[in-house]
Amino acid sequence: MMLPIYDSGVASGLLSGALFGYVLENAGFASPCKLTAEFRFTDWSVFKVMFTAIIVSAVGLYVANALGVMRPNGYYIPTTYFWATLTGGALIGAGMAVGGYCPGTSVVGFSSGRIDALFFMVGMVLGTGLFGGVFDPLKGFYFAAAGPKAQTLPTLFGIPDWAVLAILIVAAVAGFVLGGRLERKSGGALTAEQVNGDTGGMGANGMAAKKLETMPIEKFSQAH
Amino acid sequence: MNSNIRPFWPPLTAGIALGLALFLTFLLTGHGLGASGFFTRLTAWFGGEIARPATEANSYLGPYLKGGVNRLSDWITWEVIGLLAGAFVAAVTSGRFRIRFDGARGFGPVGRVALAIAGGMLSGFGARLARGCTSGIGLSGGAPLATAAFVFLIGFFVAGVLVSMLMRRTWA
């Protein structure tokens, strides 16, 4: 049997999504405080989890290709449109620093009972509509500096896949070590208890304890 | 109360599990995981409900309404429903589910709503510009070692850190 099997059905979507959501919530990525702590260098979970996941899946695809079970050019590889890709990534990073989530994690946040994540999703719909509104004048920028179709790092640098994987693994180990050090300096990565706001007086990550409290929904409705 | 809350998985465990889920998705579908694609379809559907002619005429969202086909019915929609369900099960079974208003800690309700919407707008706009989001380009492009994924992630982290510094100043 050749892979992938190209199952784009309901069950395939539900299964992939359910595993995705189950893991993201268990990683702590429903919490906007934990997610944004990455940008303050006080909690390196986002870097660690993403980098590890990229390496594991990249090694999986590498092995599957080497075993000859994958169809040639059998799976999707995005193309770089340098300015649009870079700016789009920057806007999503800025959006996380401002609103606490990215598109996928807002869904996870909402699933864990976070109402603010719902407002983030409303914002995403507005932002997508706005993009549609300015798409025509933006087209030049959108297609500017297009790279070769489906280019990968091994082709870009002219080195074998395994060499890129090895570099990524070294970078990940360095990130784990450096990140771990910075986390310890700021009182450790945020725990489930901390981000659930039930602990009283802890000053993790150099933030005042009161700032770590989430606002219970009753208080939120009273305030209105 | 607190004893009911289970700890998060260690990042290495979560990363390996996420990598395996992503790899499985590639084997099943020939592409990775995503999220923002669903919101594009949702926006087009919503636009079709409130302003059909304008949305149909729109060069970006119009194609999602063509031929009266329900474009919401797509793999990415089922995936996002799975994402909702999977995260919900994880939150409930770990004692981490609680209805609350999270968000920017230094702000009251109005400020938190405003920041969540503003952040969402940046994210929604950015995802269309980048042709995908953190999962669709960063993670799913990273698996096949696409150059695009790393260009995206550099932009994501650099801007995240810079804006975060500004936000901290706002909070102080």
Offer a few descriptive terms.
heterodimer, A: 224 residues, mainly alpha, 11 helices, 66% helix, B: 172 residues, 7 helices, 67% helix, globular
Order of helices and strands of chain B: HHHHEHHH
Computed structural class of chain B: mainly alpha
* Average pLDDT over all residues of chain A: 90
| Fraction of helical residues of chain B | 55-70%
Rg of chain A, alpha carbons: 20 Å
Total separate domains of chain B: 2
| Main sheet attributes: strand count, strand direction, barrel closure of chain B | none
Considering residues with a beta carbon less than 8 A from a beta carbon on another chain, report the largest interface and each chain's count: A-B, 144 and 130 residues
Helix count of chain B, per DSSP? 7
Low-confidence stretches of chain A: 198-212
- Low-pLDDT parts of chain B are none
- CA gyration radius of chain B, whole angstroms: 19 Å
**Oligomer category:** heterodimer
Count the helices of chain A. How many?
11
Distance between the termini of chain B: 31 Å
Helix percent of chain A reads 55-70%
Portion in beta strands of chain A? under 5%
Sketch the major β-sheet of chain A: none
Strand content of chain B: under 5%
